[in-house]
Amino acid sequence: MASQFSGVLQLMDLDDFLTPSQACVKPVKLEKKPGKSLSKIKIEDDGSYFQVNEDGGLQKLEKAKISLSDCLACSGCVTSAESILIAQQSQDELYKVLHDNKSSAEQIVVVVSVSPQSRASLAAHFGLSTSDTARRLTAFFKNIGVHHVFDTGFSRAFSLLESQKEFVERYQRKEQDKKALPMLTSACPGWICYAEKTHGDFILPYISTTRSPQQVMGSLVKGYFAEQQNLNPNQIYHVTVMPCFEQKLEASRLDFFMDDADTREVDCVITSGEVLKMLEQEGLSLNEVDPAPLDTLFSSVNGDELLRHAGSSSGGYLHHVYTHAAKQLFGVEVNDITYKTVKNKDFQEVTLEKDGTVLLRFASSYGFRNIQNLVQKLKRRKLLYDFVEVMACPSGTMNGGGQLRPPPDKSNKELLQQVEDLYNAENTRLPEEEDRVTHLYRTWLHNVGEERARELLHTRYHGVEKVSNGLTVKW
């Protein structure tokens, strides 16, 4: 569908995006021994690094392994993290855990959480419905040793409810806090990484603190689920299946590392395309896998059919926050939403009017060209919106870089439409109507206390100081 990498990789011509040519902050590992002066480093023609000892001898140095956390801590480009072979974020690491489980006396509980967008992409590839795809994926993962398969549509209900609540709170304090509005969504990690590294402290106060569905599921699996199973969080290996490579970056943020349990909330992220590779590695087509019952603990289901949320396939944030705010703030029941296309199909707006007065103005902005225009207008104080659903990928999350590519006889546009149609074929349910979600708010989140509940469902952002070097100069 999209290129192998996400839309972030296609930003090299944008003036305000950091160039990818900045030197890495951790090129080699150099051991310092007490009592010895710092040695010199010699670089050979083939790029090898050698330490020159005091006696003139040479010692070859190993290249340091760069983790996603290292890349996130650097003020270089977003895309360098995507292009590095990262062992901890691949299907190979999942296979390693499953293999070790077979020979280990102490089993690690393996949980896979599948996103609705990945499910729809795989459904289109195999000519299945999304619910049938979910049942067959459940069977496939359990056949290779996974214990539980969940649906991040369930955790998205928390994200939507928290976003609704956060917007109303921001709107009510907008006169006192000039950066309360517009509220910019936070579900897209590519956009968050770009905002932190490119616009830093200026843009961050506007971004919603609500966690993405992936990281809410991380809280649920390593928190509530671990408690229910009488397990320590580090006894669970949590994998998510996502449409974008940037979710690998998101899972690696230190904000989502549980210090007390020495584990990440999401241990491994694999893309829709990597699931296809796993099927091919097993010599299987998903059509050949006998379906299994869905795990209903953390899944949005009605019987054996999966449900979705109304609104865009990127999560429906605009739809749900808009309808909730209209009712909560102005007592207006919104049944139908009319979207107006502005400039291009990836930028749309919605307005709530009453007696000729505009009460709310919302927008959706997909793709970095629209995002850049959005930020520039915000800097010039010419952005008139109260809320913007922001996604880095053109056409939204369904077009993520990790989604499956079209066959030779089908265009990207045709495949994207097919995936959208499959997603929209699911019946909808309001997040407020999710009985299991309501139960967890009343029990688990209430019991941990308001401050802890906020920590489990919200996050924080960190502006990255720009580093200037000669390579960033435009000649």
From TrEMBL:
<dbReference type="InterPro" id="IPR009016">
    <property type="entry name" value="Fe_hydrogenase"/>
</dbReference>
<protein>
    <recommendedName>
        <fullName>Nuclear prelamin A recognition factor-like protein</fullName>
    </recommendedName>
</protein>
<dbReference type="InterPro" id="IPR050340">
    <property type="entry name" value="Cytosolic_Fe-S_CAF"/>
</dbReference>
<keyword id="KW-0411">Iron-sulfur</keyword>
<dbReference type="InterPro" id="IPR004108">
    <property type="entry name" value="Fe_hydrogenase_lsu_C"/>
</dbReference>
<dbReference type="InterPro" id="IPR003149">
    <property type="entry name" value="Fe_hydrogenase_ssu"/>
</dbReference>
<dbReference type="GO" id="GO:0046872">
    <property type="term" value="F:metal ion binding"/>
</dbReference>
<keyword id="KW-0408">Iron</keyword>
<dbReference type="GO" id="GO:0051539">
    <property type="term" value="F:4 iron, 4 sulfur cluster binding"/>
</dbReference>
<dbReference type="Pfam" id="PF02256">
    <property type="entry name" value="Fe_hyd_SSU"/>
</dbReference>
<feature type="domain" description="Iron hydrogenase small subunit">
    <location>
        <begin position="409"/>
        <end position="465"/>
    </location>
</feature>
<dbReference type="Pfam" id="PF02906">
    <property type="entry name" value="Fe_hyd_lg_C"/>
</dbReference>
<keyword id="KW-0004">4Fe-4S</keyword>
<comment type="similarity">
    <text>Belongs to the NARF family.</text>
</comment>
<keyword id="KW-0479">Metal-binding</keyword>
